[in-house]
Amino acid sequence: MESTKLKRPKHKGSPKLFKNPILEKLTHTHISMPLIIFGLISIALIYYGIIEKGFEAPIMVLLFIAGLFFFTFVEYIMHRYLYHIPATSERKKKLSYTMHGVHHDYPKDKSRLAMPPVLSLVVATILFIIYRAVLGDYVFGFLAGFLIGYAAYLGVHYSVHAFRVPNNFLKVLWHHHSIHHYREPDRAFGVSSPLWDQIFRTMPRKNPRAKRKQKTNVYIDPEAN
Predict the structure, then answer these.
(1) How confident is the model at residue 15 (pLDDT cuts 50, 70, 90)?
(2) Where are the domains of the chain?
(3) How many angstroms separate the CA atoms of 26 and 118, rounded?
(4) From the CB of residue 119, how many other CB atoms can be counted at a distance below 10 Å?
(5) Is residue 76 classed exposed, middle or buried when 0-12, 13-18 and 19+ CB atoms within 10 A define those classes?
(6) Residue 17 per-residue DSSP state
(7) Which of 26, 77, 99, 160 is the most buried (most CB within 10 A)?
(8) DSSP code of 51?
């Protein structure tokens, strides 16, 4: 009979990814760094959009929400198709492991739960150039929301791996991501939200225990023929 318990990874500690000490050092990031950096950048973008570009607050709020929402989609797509890229060659296998596979093997490695700040700033700059070309001055509100979405994702992801399951509405995120790590790595790709898993039908499958419980809870009308 298939076990319904989540399997815990055996690996503990922090593995070495690069022989070069500088590159190895860059793979370790304290979670506070990106949260502070992207929080400040987002504030600066909103300030510039309102003070220098003259956007009214309601417009900036809508752009901010749109950027935040768009990030949840990008998060899902990257996690599903980039981080879990099929290892069809040694190069792809190495790339996949360095980007994300190491996190699955060492999920409690707190220093590798965020992209290095230098790389994050490069990516943010590239996104600014792309979004500016597409959105014009609307980029200031939109990118601010997008970056806060990334910061929120980092906060949730770190909390899931570093702290106990909370006894509130956020526990669904703990359970959702734990299933991805310990039972179904081909499901539950959303970290900050299960929305896109619902839309693209990659929600966790019901395990045998849940199915049995569901069957035992079926009500049978004694008066039925």
Answers:
(1) low
(2) 30-167
(3) 8
(4) 12
(5) buried
(6) -
(7) 160
(8) I
